[in-house]
TrEMBL record:
This is Adenylate kinase. It holds the Pfam family ADK. Keywords: ATP-binding, Cytoplasm, Kinase, Metal-binding, Nucleotide biosynthesis, Nucleotide-binding, Transferase, Zinc. Residues 32-61 are annotated as: NMP. It catalyses: AMP + ATP = 2 ADP. InterPro entries: Adenyl_kin_sub, Adenylat/UMP-CMP_kin, Adenylat_kinase_CS, Adenylate_kinase_lid-dom, P-loop_NTPase. Its main location: cytoplasm. Its EC number is 2.7.4.3. It comes from the Bacteria. ATP binds at residues 12-17, 129, 201. GO terms for biological process: AMP salvage. The gene is adk. Residues 129-164 form the Adenylate kinase active site lid domain.
Amino acid sequence: MVKDLIILGAPGAGKGTLSADLCPLLKIKHISTGDLLREVVESGSALGQEIGGYIKTGALVPDEVIGRMIKEQLNTAECRNGVLLDGFPRTPPQAEMLENILADLQRRITAVFFLNIEQEQVVNRLIHRVSCRKCGKPYHLINLPPKKSGICDDCGGDLIQREDDREETIRKRFATFLEKTQPLIDFYDRKKLLLPINAGNNPQETLRIALADLEALLNNIK
Ligand SMILES: [Zn+2]
């Protein structure tokens, strides 16, 4: 059975980790819209040039163009077994467009994972992240601290915190995410496709819950 999945979650909820764990197990392709946009632009294809034109002028890439890009990708051999979409759709109109694209391909959304996490937990996860100014090596001050405080183990460079990982910025991004994503969460909840997953656990536990919930949903549908 083809599995076309979506993953939603605030920055810091662990979307990247769960996606990396889940996709090989389900033999499906992870499609991060941001990465795909960059790849398509770099490929220099007709679609890539069109998208590049929007990006260059700082304009938003229109939904219809993103839709064509996703459709092209869904048609490739690597997406035959299914995909895990990350970063698309972001709005109910985009979700409706995705339904039409999938219907054209005789496919449909199987499930939507929503990694649910408390704001305080995101703050605690991200606020301790630092990286080397020189070589970029990432550290976590609690879980993966450097040997010498403030200094990179590998190259001796200074460890710095990204603007994105400052507490105030984290709280702002979290609030914006919830506000923007709530309509989409409601959309998929009404369609009985939403799988809310408590993302406050360790990655192994999150993966186990995601797989169990997906199986339960699939069994209910049958
Ligand atoms: Zn370094």
